[in-house]
Amino acid sequence: MLNENPIGRRRFLLGASTLAASAALSFLPARAQEGLTPEQVLNDPDMPFVGAKNPDITIAEFMDYNCPYCRKSHPELKKLLASDRKVRVVYKDWPVFGPVSEYAARLAIAAKWQGKYEAAHDALMSSPKRFQQNKEVTAVLTKAGIDMAKLDKDAVAHKADIDKLIARNALQADTIGLQGTPSWLVESFIVFGGLSHAQLQEAVAEARRRKKAAAGK
Fold it and tell me: Phi/psi of residue 148, each to 5°?
């Protein structure tokens, strides 16, 4: 059972090899979602997930396809998913690097209606260079085997849903107080910056330790 306390009771930063607690995280004032909980972020029914169907640990990554640290962390996260079958990852598209990033996020989300969100996400994250133009995004998705005619139709037909999802991700990031990508919510605590496979494993181990401790109370 997820901790229903608001996110930000404690902030965690990953060092070279240890998790260290720092000051309490403050929410921005006058926000309707000031009491935002991990459950609301980790289990958004409109956001596709990868990994375990019945996880014991869920990670939400706030990411941007033009973020170099997100790209560097992506293969490390794939290693985690391959080595730990009890982890689920929810990608929170948060396009903070401009219009082309938003275009990429919208197309990636639209790919879920053809069951290709993960393929689209992996292809965009694996691109060797930053996307400067929309046509570079579509070229990568075409090469990844995405049905572009259907993708374009779905992006238009589901525009309102995509708008709401991206806006909700941005509001959650703002409410939590995130300042850049990638940022990670690992169950009920936050980790910032690009992470290695070992650091991701450490974060998951810490989340399991905390859940076990809470269950033993």
Answer: -70, -30
